[in-house]
């Protein structure tokens, strides 16, 4: 798809601007602070109805104006859609599609799909785990809008459960006056009135929503892994390979925190005895025995019960191989259906929650949501007393991280500025490839990306993006636009955008 | 800020659900301009509802007497109880004319954020109603949101030892809507709740 037209009224620094755009490459060039990013931010807003720079809408409205309007014509398979958004900070936005008002503005989300790389994305590599979780979840929503609901439900369960845990923590410390029902024998016998009786209910809901989110993230990481590696390799040929590992508070695989070189702050805080562990990465080698969860849980039973995903291969980092026996047995208990798939514990997959031993049929889910749900419930039980002490939910996808590795080392804390930049870019390019494979090229937006790259990486990036249906580039200096990317050219200065090529 | 009594009225109106400060102000000035008889009628209705209407001793629905109309109606099936959150849900279900059993109004849903636990709902009263074993089916018709689901799960677990049939309303697609315009969440839930088609 591509954007054929963009017009803004009272958006950011623009009072009005009107641009005709074409497929292929378009560059917006001009000095700092002239409004280049404002233009592409507006397109990002059409796609997601949120800004990549700010969490609220108020800064998007031109200072002194009361609302902003973004109009765009999106062309997909020769069908044109006119998407109009009125941004009303503090009130409901309004949307029109082909001039008819939509009752819910969010119904026009996704008509335009963009992948936007911006300097803020450096935080994907250098920032907190929350940045990487958001990257994954945003991508899930972009691929299947249903996940907006899953995510919202999960957040809501967390809030409810958190409130309950805090109440319970207070009741424990205080006079236990919270147990009003204790004198009512029948009622109390049924377990009602006790905070813990409703905790079970929230556990069940947390596990269900959490498993859905977690399963989707794990599948997403599997899909992204080769794409990120390929994107990074093509940006920086000959450099150490880029790898991804999902690191969960729930043990989801055999590979774990590698003994070498993981700085403590790369590992999400481990609740109680639960270790921060991960799915495996790298090239699957069938002969390799599955490794146990790392970070050694207090006892083998728990470790196994939480291990719902099988070793997938190894990250090739030379971690010591460990037999998978204990893990395999417990995994059986957690999910009996697995029995028929698992021939023997050692020497192959302990548990096929992620099917790597068989060849999963195309389109079939390779992550076992049911097994994850059960494991989440078990893990919640295990950390319950710690949770009641602290009043927060200690296991679940809200505490997970996506580990980024460059060769032997984690990217975070180790990679150079240029490497981090390239890694963040590789993540976005992989997202682009994935969305593209789902059908229809998204619009690729590269804000200020070239200035930070060396000559070779610039050239490689230019090659990489040249096949996209539409690429929009911003640069402060004309020389930052690679000559390979000859296309339309707009000068951006003092609030006006002028086509010069 | 207005003169004492006017501001008082605005403040009181502003405490009603769904009435923000702006609407409160608009309603207040509407009342100031209205005919005294109209305002008296409104005031009377407010007082009367407080004096005359109470909650049914049995089911918690609004009632003009000790027991509500439905609980007093001997033609209603005493073996089936439909559990809802609010009296307005009773009205909604009654409109369908599909249900001939009895109701139980919880008075809300479990929501720790709002400080509402099982003790704060009419769950104890429900357990008492179920104790004699006359009821054979419990329909959980709490709202299809997270809190409603949690309340339904809680109740289902609580009554499980009693061995009665527990059902949950299917949450599905609005009738008269085009499938393609149903929002993803609704459509997703409808998929989850899909059933075998008997032909
Ligand atoms: N709501 C607003 N109202 C008026 N002006 C705004 C508003 N928001 C941002 N601006 C102005 O827009 C300018 C920033 O625009 P933008 O971020 O697009 O710059 P840029 O061309 O991308 O610059 P750089 O090369 O530094 O990235 C700033 O001068 C800022 O003051
Ligand atoms: Mg900029
Ligand atoms: Zn009644």
Automatic annotation (TrEMBL), chain A:
Q: Which domain of life is it from?
A: Bacteria
Q: Give a GO molecular function annotation for the protein.
A: single-stranded DNA binding
Task: List the Gene3D superfamilies.
Answer: P-loop containing nucleotide triphosphate hydrolases, RecF/RecN/SMC, N-terminal domain
Q: Name one GO cellular component term.
A: cytoplasm
Pfam families, sorted? SMC_N
Q: Does the keyword section mention Nucleus?
A: no
Q: Which InterPro entries match?
A: DNA-binding_RecF (IPR001238), DNA-binding_RecF_CS (IPR018078), P-loop_NTPase (IPR027417), RecF/RecN/SMC_N (IPR003395), RecF_2 (IPR042174)
Annotated binding of ATP, by residue: 30-37
**Where is composition skewed (Low complexity) in this entry?**
317-331
Which residues are in the RecF/RecN/SMC N-terminal domain?
A: 3-475
Q: Where in the cell is it found?
A: Cytoplasm
Question: Key word Nucleotide-binding present in the record?
Answer: yes
Per UniProt, which keywords does this protein have?
Answer: ATP-binding, Cytoplasm, DNA damage, DNA repair, DNA replication, DNA-binding, Nucleotide-binding, SOS response
Q: Give one GO biological process term.
A: double-strand break repair
Q: What role is this protein assigned?
A: The RecF protein is involved in DNA metabolism; it is required for DNA replication and normal SOS inducibility. RecF binds preferentially to single-stranded, linear DNA. It also seems to bind ATP.
Similarity section? Belongs to the RecF family.
Instruction: Write the protein's name.
Output: DNA replication and repair protein RecF
From TrEMBL, chain B:
Superkingdom of the organism of origin: Bacteria
Organism expressing this protein natively: Planobispora longispora
* Record-linked NCBIfam families: recR
InterPro entries documented for this protein = DNA_Rcmb_RecR (IPR000093), Rcmb_RecR (IPR023627), Rcmb_RecR_Znf (IPR015967), TOPRIM_dom (IPR006171), TOPRIM_RecR (IPR034137)
Q: Where are the zinc fingers (C4-type)?
A: 56-71
Record-given protein name: Recombination protein RecR
Q: Which Gene Ontology biological process is one annotated for this entry?
A: DNA recombination
Question: What is the similarity comment for this entry?
Answer: Belongs to the RecR family.
Which parts of the sequence belong to the Toprim domain?
Answer: 79-174
Keywords in alphabetical order, please: DNA damage, DNA recombination, DNA repair, Metal-binding, Zinc, Zinc-finger
| Keyword Lipoprotein appears in the UniProt entry | no
What GO MF annotations does this protein's record show? DNA binding; zinc ion binding
Q: What does this protein do?
A: May play a role in DNA repair. It seems to be involved in an RecBC-independent recombinational process of DNA repair. It may act with RecF and RecO.
Residue intervals passing through the bilayer: none
């Amino acid at each position: 798809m591509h954007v054929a037209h963009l017009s803004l009224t009272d958006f950011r620094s623009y009072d009005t601007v009107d641009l005709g755009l074409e497929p292929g490459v378009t560059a917006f060039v001009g000095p700092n602070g002239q409004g280049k990013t404002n233009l592409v931010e507006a397109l990002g807003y059409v796609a997601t109805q949120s800004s990549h720079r700010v969490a609220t809408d108020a800064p998007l409205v031109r200072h002194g104006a009361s609302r902003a309007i973004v109009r765009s014509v999106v062309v997909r398979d020769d069908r044109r859609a006119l998407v109009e958004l009125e941004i009303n900070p503090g009130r409901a936005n309004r949307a029109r599609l082909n001039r008819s008002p939509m009752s819910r503005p969010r119904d026009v989300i996704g008509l335009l799909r963009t992948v936007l790389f911006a300097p803020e994305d450096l935080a994907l590599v250098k920032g907190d785990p929350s940045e990487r979780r958001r990257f994954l979840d945003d991508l899930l929503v972009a691929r299947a809008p249903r996940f907006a609901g899953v995510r919202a439900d999960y957040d809501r369960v967390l809030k409810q459960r958190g409130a309950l845990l805090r109440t319970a923590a207070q009741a424990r410390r205080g006079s236990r006056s919270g147990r009003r029902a204790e004198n009512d024998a029948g009622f109390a016998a049924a377990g009602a009135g006790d905070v813990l009786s409703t905790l079970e209910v929230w556990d069940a809901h947390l596990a269900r929503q959490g498993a859905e989110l977690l399963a989707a993230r794990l599948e997403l990481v599997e899909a992204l892994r080769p794409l990120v590696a390929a994107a990074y390799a093509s940006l920086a040929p000959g450099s150490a390979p880029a790898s991804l590992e999902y690191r969960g508070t729930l043990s989801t695989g055999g590979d774990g925190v590698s003994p070498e070189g993981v700085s403590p702050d790369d590992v999400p805080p481990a609740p109680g005895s639960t270790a921060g562990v991960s799915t495996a990465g790298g090239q699957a080698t069938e002969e390799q025995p599955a490794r146990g969860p790392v970070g050694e849980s207090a006892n083998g039973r728990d470790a196994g019960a939480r291990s719902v995903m099988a070793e997938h291969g190894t990250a090739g980092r030379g971690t010591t191989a460990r037999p998978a026996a204990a893990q395999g047995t417990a995994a059986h208990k957690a999910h009996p259906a697995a029995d028929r798939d698992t021939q023997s514990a050692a020497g192959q997959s302990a548990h096929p929650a992620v099917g790597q031993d068989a060849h999963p049929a195309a389109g079939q889910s390779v992550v076992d949501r049911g097994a994850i749900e059960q494991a989440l419930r078990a893990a919640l039980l295990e950390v319950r007393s710690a949770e009641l002490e602290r009043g927060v939910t200690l296991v679940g996808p809200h505490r997970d991280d996506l580990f980024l590795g460059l060769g032997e080392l984690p990217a975070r804390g180790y990679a150079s500025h240029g490497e981090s930049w390239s890694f963040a870019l590789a993540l976005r390019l992989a997202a682009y490839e994935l969305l593209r494979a789902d059908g229809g090229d998204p619009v690729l937006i590269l804000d200020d990306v070239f200035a930070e790259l060396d000559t070779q990486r610039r050239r490689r990036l230019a090659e990489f993006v040249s096949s996209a249906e539409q690429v929009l580039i911003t640069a402060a200096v004309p020389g930052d636009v690679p000559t390979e990317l000859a296309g339309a050219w707009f000068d951006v200065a003092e609030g006006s955008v002028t086509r010069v090529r | 800020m207005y003169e004492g009594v006017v501001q008082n009225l605005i403040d009181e109106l502003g405490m009603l659900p769904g009435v923000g400060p702006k609407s409160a102000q608009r309603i207040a000035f509407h009342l100031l301009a209205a005919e005294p008889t109209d305002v008296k009628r409104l005031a009377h209705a407010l007082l009367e509802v407080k004096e005359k209407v109470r909650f049914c001793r049995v089911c918690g629905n609004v009632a003009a007497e000790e027991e509500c109309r439905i609980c007093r109606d001997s033609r209603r099936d005493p073996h089936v109880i439909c559990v809802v959150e609010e009296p307005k849900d009773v009205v909604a279900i009654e409109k369908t004319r599909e249900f001939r059993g009895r109701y139980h109004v919880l008075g809300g849903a479990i929501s720790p954020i709002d400080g509402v636990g099982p003790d704060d709902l009419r769950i104890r009263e429900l357990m008492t109603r179920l104790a004699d074993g006359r009821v054979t089916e419990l329909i959980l018709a709490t709202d299809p949101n997270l809190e409603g689901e949690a309340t339904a799960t809680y109740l289902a677990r609580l009554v499980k030892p009693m061995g009665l049939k527990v059902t949950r309303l299917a949450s599905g697609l609005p009738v008269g809507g085009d499938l393609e315009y149903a929002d993803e969440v609704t459509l997703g839930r409808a998929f989850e709740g899909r059933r075998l088609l008997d032909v």
